[in-house]
Amino acid sequence: MTEDEQFNTNAGIVKDLVSACADFCPKAMICIITNPVNSTLPLAAEVLKKKGVFDEKRLFGMTALNLSRAKAFVAEAVGCNVTKLVVPVVGGNSGITIVPLISQSIPPVDLSLEERKKIIQKLQNADTEIIETKASTGSATLSMAHAASKFTLSLLAAIDGEEGQVESAYVKSEETTSPYLATPLLLGGEGIVKNLGMSSLDEFETELVKAALPELARNIQKGIDYANKS
């Protein structure tokens, strides 16, 4: 299934569900996991705006699976314990919009530029590879659910008053020219406390982000157009 086919199948579902949330639970924290998230999150935002209940601190696009994959691929490349590694991932949730910030890995890792390029290509093509392996009969359902549960549990912990909950998601942003961008977030009882943004990108990562922006713009506009067509 192509991204356009995914959108055509899922856009109406997202629109109806978010509209119902706006009517019956307007203060809810809404986490959009339905692909393509680059488009369905802006669609959801437009629906909430039309209903007069949009709160950018309470709307999240799920990108947690990209972080799980990034640290798994980096850990495999350097031979370290994946549970002790953090690799930030910014941008969007598909293809070239997924930008792992390997230079900001904690702890730092020593990889050549060519090794980094191979990991990035593997990460950006991961969904396509899984769909092809399953002969287009399914996607990364279990790993997506695992990653989403991690984000949701952190958000619930933050709502319950636990401080220091940091997770990444695709949200309203002023970091770049893109109105929506995935970045690390500090979570709290009302949703996003602070967007931690992107800091200290190296030259290679800066170019990757620049390359992602036109595709993000197209994806975002698709969601906005769908929300406003009726």
Description:
By secondary structure, the chain is α+β, with helices and mostly antiparallel strands. It folds into 2 domains: about 5-60 and about 220-225, Rossmann fold, CATH 3.40.50; about 65-215, L-2-Hydroxyisocaproate Dehydrogenase, Chain A, domain 2. The chain has 7 helices and 7 strands, in the order αβαβαββαααβββα. The chain has a 5-stranded mixed beta sheet with strand order 1-2-5-6-7. The protein has a two-stranded antiparallel ribbon with strand order 3-4. It is globular. The model has no long low-confidence stretch (mean pLDDT about 95). Belongs to the LDH/MDH superfamily. MDH type 1 family. Keywords: NAD, Oxidoreductase, Tricarboxylic acid cycle. It catalyses: (S)-malate + NAD(+) = oxaloacetate + NADH + H(+). Pfam families: Ldh_1_C, Ldh_1_N.
Q: Which residues form runs of ≥5 with pLDDT under 50?
A: none
Helix and strand composition category: alpha+beta
Number of strands: 7
Q: What's the total helix number? A: 7
Content of β-strand: 15-25%
Instruction: State the share of residues found in helices, binned by percent.
Output: 40-55%
Largest sheet: 5 strands, mixed
Q: Which sequence of SSEs, written as H and E, runs from N to C?
A: HEHEHEEHHHEEEH
Strand order of the largest sheet: 1-2-5-6-7
- CATH architecture label of the largest domain: Alpha-Beta Complex
CATH fold group of the largest domain: L-2-Hydroxyisocaproate Dehydrogenase, Chain A, domain 2
